[in-house]
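User: For my dataset I need records formatted as: sequence, then structure tokens, nothing else. Please produce one.
Assistant:
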Amino acid sequence: MADMLVLGEPDDAPTIPPETVPSTFAVGDAVMLADGPFASLPGTVRGIDVDGRMLTVALSIFGRDHDIEVPFHQVGKL
């Protein structure tokens, strides 16, 4: 029986060229989460993963900063 578990992406998987990623975000930008469990909370961009299309955003929850990773489409600029 063949093992059906596939780890990672196949070698011929398409990749998204960095120039097609929206350059609307920069480290230090004030953003608002638009979707997900933290929707409508303001935060600050701490990191950008262009290949994974994710942002690391610092949120202040109960007076403490927490870093979360969210996809580009769940974040809007303030």
